[in-house]
Design goal:
One of its GO terms (molecular function) is dihydroneopterin aldolase activity. Its EC number is 4.1.2.25. Belongs to the DHNA family. Residues 9-118 form the Dihydroneopterin aldolase/epimerase domain. InterPro entries: Dihydroneopterin_aldolase, FolB_dom, GTP-CH-I_C/QueF. The chain is an alpha+beta fold. It has a single domain (6-119), classed as 2-Layer Sandwich (GTP Cyclohydrolase I, domain 2), CATH 3.30.1130. Helices cover 25% and strands 32% of the residues. It has 3 helices and 4 strands. It has helices at 24-29, 55-66, 74-85; strands spanning 6-18, 31-42, 93-99, 113-119. It has a 4-stranded antiparallel β-sheet with strand order 1-2-3-4. Helix 2 packs antiparallel against helix 3. The longest helix has 12 residues, at 55-66. The chain is elongated.
Length: 122
């Protein structure tokens, strides 16, 4: 596939409601999470979706993970997303940032996030 040229696909600001967190209220009520995903993939030589990663399907998968099984930590959520993304052997590297803009923090803040990077080793 491709001519050896690598490129990056970025999905920024994927929003979903999840029930992740340590506090019972976070599990019961849920809250918004925002996810950014960047993947390094071979670039297609033709104008052919079959030669590259379908970013619509990738977005659906990420949202499904956020809306799925609750975990305590956004670090764990980011790792789950990264691991799932890397199941596609065409993807060489992935960087996932999970934002928790409504985190229970006793201070004024705009965002809290965790970023994880992983790679497929050949």
């Amino acid at each position: 596939m491709g001519d050896g040229t690598m490129g990056t696909i970025r999905l920024l600001g994927l929003e979903a409601i999840g029930r992740h967190g340590v506090l019972p209220s976070e599990r019961e009520q849920g809250q918004p999470f925002v996810v950014d995903v960047s993947v390094e993939v071979p670039m297609p030589v033709d104008d052919d979706l079959g030669q590259t990663v379908d970013y619509s399907a990738l977005a659906t998968e990420v949202v499904g993970i956020v809306e799925g099984r609750p975990v305590d930590l956004i670090e764990t959520l980011a790792a789950m997303i990264a691991d799932r993304v890397l199941e596609d052997s065409r993807i060489r590297t992935v960087e996932v940032t999970v934002h928790k803009p409504a985190a229970p923090i006793a201070a004024d803040f705009r965002d809290v996030s965790v970023t994880i990077s992983r790679s497929n080793h050949e």
